[in-house]
Each structure stands twice: as C-alpha cells, then as structure tokens.
Design goal:
two-stranded antiparallel ribbon, 4 strands, about 30% helix
Length: about 110
C-alpha cells in the first residue's frame, strides 16, 4: 500500500551564499542579477519534482516577514524580537507614526 500525503511548498527556500552576500553589499544591479538566477533555479527545481505548485521560494525578498515594508520611512529598527527554536532571532521594525501601508508590492 502506498500512502500519498498531499503537500505544497510555501515559504522560504534557503538562499545561495552568493545571493546572501549580494544582498549585504546593497548593490541593486548585482543583487537583481544574482536574485534572478536564484529564482530561475528554484523554479526549475520545483518543476523537476513534479509539484503542482511552483513558488519563487522568496529568493528575491530581503525577509519573509518584512519585505512589504521596504521603503517605508515611518519605521524604527527597535521592534519586537522573535526567537526561533534553533536559536536565531528576527527583529521586526516598530511603526513610529501612521498611517501604515505596504511599501512594496512584488509579484514576480
């Protein structure tokens, strides 16, 4: 008997080291070029699995939690810290004044 468990991928896929490094250097042209390569590789790999759902794996986004906030000027970096079971943390920004709105809408 074969057991089938329906699944679909959601969320982040680990980013290649060169993409992480390019993001840290804050060079938009370099990041865009490397991010496109990572995105195409992620999509190709998902397609090879036969998955009916193909995702970008959030390769081009700076953070799964905060990418819609990019470009906002009413945020301070000292927001809540979220601890993860493996020991790493993410710190969210704090809204300093309203109104709140998304700073970025990305559909790739």
């Amino acid at each position: 008997m074969t057991l089938s468990i329906p699944t679909e991928p959601i969320g982040s896929i680990p980013r290649p080291a060169d993409l992480i490094a390019a993001f840290g250097r804050n060079n938009a042209g370099e990041f865009d070029r490397i991010a496109r390569q990572a995105l195409l590789d992620t999509i190709r790999r998902f397609a090879e699995t036969g998955s009916p759902v193909i995702t970008d794996g959030e390769q081009t986004k700076p953070s799964f939690a905060t990418y819609p906030l990019n470009g906002l000027t009413n945020l301070a970096p000292d927001g809540i810290v979220i601890p993860f079971a493996d020991g790493h943390t993410r710190q969210l920004p704090r809204l300093t004044n309203g109104p709140f709105q998304y700073g970025e809408h990305r559909i790739v």
